[in-house]
Amino acid sequence: MKITRNYKYKDVEMLMAAETIVQSLSDNLVDLSVARTNWDEAYVTATATQIDNAIENYLGKDAKLDLRQATAQVTAVQAPALRDLSFLKRQIEVDFGAGAAAMLKNLGFTTYLKSARKGNQESLIELLYAFKQGLTAEIRAQIVAREPARHCSIGLLVMPIS
Q1: H-type helices in the chain, by residue range?
Q2: pLDDT tens digit at each of 162 positions of the chain
Q3: How many angstroms separate the CA atoms of 143 and 111, rounded?
Q4: Which of 30, 99, 116, 153 is the most exposed place for a label (fewest CB within 10 A)?
Q5: Are residues 95 and 147 in contact, defined by beta-carbon separation less than 8 angstroms?
């Protein structure tokens, strides 16, 4: 269902104004019901319920809660992920020499690591996704085969990526 707005104000302002008007209607119902016979207790209750539903469904009690939770999750993994990815990048450069560039590009390092290190959360997410997509079983085996003991501390290689 397409939402159509016939007002130039913010949704929250309109809903708060509507809530205030309905409260005033409820407070003065005895006098106002003379002017309109359909203005009764049931009408006021139904209108107040519609406004409450609109506030909850369209604005939410906390409209940015999901965004803050997602940001907190990204922030929580940002430092450990960057530490592990930087360590792995260096090991690939040392272990594979000239062949490292193609592998690093395939894993997303050349495109996203620089801006992820600067705190760009979108770049970190893109880097992790590119790493997930690019880390095939063959590449994983090549990296671990170089020196398995060194890579055991890196959760990116030990844990299965799903």
Answers
A1: 11-27, 29-32, 41-54, 65-96, 100-106, 109-117, 121-134, 137-146, 148-151, 155-158
A2: 677 778 888 888 888 899 999 999 998 888 888 888 899 999 999 999 998 888 888 776 665 677 778 888 888 889 899 999 999 999 999 988 888 999 999 999 999 999 999 989 899 999 999 999 999 999 888 888 876 555 554 555 544 444
A3: 20
A4: 30
A5: yes
Separation between Cα atoms, residue 71 and residue 73, nearest integer Å? 5
Kindly state the tokens that stand for 74: 């990204």
Q: Which amino acid is at 69?
A: Q
State pTM to two decimals.
0.54
Q: Which two tokens stand for residue 48?
A: 């107040």
